[in-house]
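Reminder: ligand-aware prediction takes two inputs, not one.
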Amino acid sequence: MDDRSKVIKYLNGGWDGVAVRDYKENDRLHRSVTRRDLLGAAQDEHGLSVITRYFEVAPGGYSTLERHEHAHAVIVLHGQGTAILGEHSYAIAPFDCVYVARDTLHQFQASEDAALGFLCIVDRVRDRPRLPSPDELKRLAALGVSPKPGVAEKP
Ligand code: MN
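Here is what comes back for the chain with manganese (II) ion:
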């Protein structure tokens, strides 16, 4: 038996002992996203081969449009927003479950009037995200899919 089982309590709007982190450090292609590593990232949780993170996107915010070889399992907990998956855009709401397939461009956008909170489960060992090419961005625009930042907002 292993005595490292535990309950991480949700108290006063956060998880006890879980830090609120920046979503990513080195890119400006996202806005107003925080990350909490809930399960699987701590030293005493290596019995898990996956990491469960909680992301919160403030109203009007969005994650980076990216792709990678690993898949994502996403479960929406609160708010409303949009998920871009490949060449499609989907409205998402609480308890919706999203499968982001391998090598598929994806972005999560919060609506303008509510924060979007979701769990995202990933493999512990995974590759780094890659950004879309200018041609891919043009193709999405031609299809009427609108990743952010839009052309007018680009830094
Ligand atoms: Mn991703």
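The chain is about 5% helix and 40% strand. Residues 66, 68, 72, 106, 129 surround manganese (II) ion (CB under 6 Å). We will return to this case in the review session.
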